[in-house]
Design brief:
The protein has 12 helices and 14 strands. The protein is α/β, with parallel strands linked by helices. A hairpin with a 2-residue loop joins β4 and β5. Bound molecules: adenosine-5'-triphosphate and magnesium ion (MG). Keywords: Antibiotic resistance, ATP-binding, Cell membrane, Membrane, Nucleotide-binding, Translocase, Transport. GO terms for molecular function: ABC-type xenobiotic transporter activity; ATP binding; ATP hydrolysis activity.
């Protein structure tokens, strides 16, 4: 367990018949960002709530920051921070007032609370907006304030439960920057997410969770290799061009091309991404194959799921059924 900031073994949590966690294992190295990746209802929030002492499991063991989560919950609480799936900041107060209030909640005393608030506003690039009401903040600013609030005591381990769900790309980018800065200052982060690209960008290791169990634990590259990594994808204008396009794609790309006849799509895995894309585009043009669309596609959580479990995530199954 040495060198791990979070260590959980065989965690169980039942709600009636429902097994929210069903023998869940997790090991997070100190000083890293670890991604916990899974679809809606997989058990991410349940795992985070257990590890942050908010709820008790029905079975299993867990250590956080070197302490037993169930025997030493108070000591654990003093070493962790938690940003929930739903923001906890007060809309009416300003950003600064929110942070000062959290500081006093943690018994910092007026002066230290003010200093810490100013420091965190600076760190999360909120100084200009500090004295505006939070009701007027953008989504990204709000999440940054939420992150700042969970950093009041500079925790050894920070749990971030879907910190970017519902944010636009700019807001997501801002939160990612803040997370990187935290880790650079020594905090270990466990981040739950439904987005493979988010886990890929931030985490050095990813645990994939499905129905309360870890179904994979790997580096982002390892997971992407499992699904064949990035793909070049061509959408054709004419069905009759499919065989010719398959030949071109097979010649240029490393992996076996796959065809989606209904959507006139031909795609194949690539490692040399941009070079392969350029080469496919050029060759198709030389051969007079009309192309509707061409691009690089990064694997999604859905692709990972399909490879690991043989089924799609339930959400996308529903979407598929509705379409
Ligand atoms: N308090 C509760 N009472 C009953 N069932 C619960 C409770 N909390 C969670 N569950 C169930 O346990 C399962 C796991 O839920 P959890 O919230 O941990 O999933 P999640 O991975 O965080 O999902 P999301 O991505 O939607 O946040 C779900 O089926 C959920 O309905
Ligand atoms: Mg959740």
């Amino acid at each position: 367990m040495d060198g791990y900031a979070v260590w959980a073994e065989a965690l169980e949590k039942r709600y009636g018949e429902k097994r929210a966690l069903d023998g869940f294992d997790l090991a997070v190295r100190e000083g890293t960002v670890h991604g916990l990746l899974g679809p809606n209802g997989a058990g991410k929030t349940t795992a985070v709530r257990i590890l942050s002492t908010l709820i008790k499991p029905d079975g299993g063991r867990a250590r956080v920051a070197g302490l037993d989560v169930f025997r030493q919950p108070r000591e654990v609480r003093a070493r962790i921070g938690l940003t929930g799936q739903y923001a906890a900041v007060d809309e009416v107060l300003t950003g600064r007032q929110n942070l000062e209030m959290f500081g006093r909640l943690f018994h910092l005393g007026g002066k230290r609370a003010r200093l810490r608030a100013a420091e965190l506003l600076e760190r999360f690039d909120l100084t200009d907006a500090a004295d505006r009401g939070v009701g007027k903040y953008s989504g990204g600013m709000r999440r940054r304030l939420d992150l700042a609030a969970s950093m009041i005591l500079a925790p050894a381990v920070l749990f971030l439960d879907e910190p970017t769900t519902g944010l636009d790309p700019r807001g997501r980018g801002e939160v990612w920057e803040s997370v990187r800065a935290l880790v650079a200052s020594g905090t270990t982060v466990l981040l739950t997410t439904q987005y493979l690209d988010e886990a890929d960008k931030l985490a050095s290791r990813i645990t994939v969770i499905d129905r309360g169990r870890a179904i994979a634990d790997d580096t982002p590259d390892g997971l992407k290799d499992l699904v064949g990594g990035d793909r070049v994808e061509v959408v054709l204008a004419e069905r009759t061009d499919i065989p010719r396009a398959v030949k071109v794609v097979a010649r240029v790309c490393e992996g076996e091309p796959e065809t989606d006849e209904g959507e006139l799509r031909v795609h194949a895995p690539v490692t040399d991404r941009v070079a392969a894309l350029t080469e496919v585009a050029r060759t198709l043009q030389d051969e007079g194959v009309a192309v509707e669309d061409i691009g690089l596609r990064r694997p999604s959580l859905d692709d990972v799921f399909l490879r690991l479990t043989g089924h799609r995530t339930e959400i996308s199954q529903e979407k598929g059924a509705a379409a």
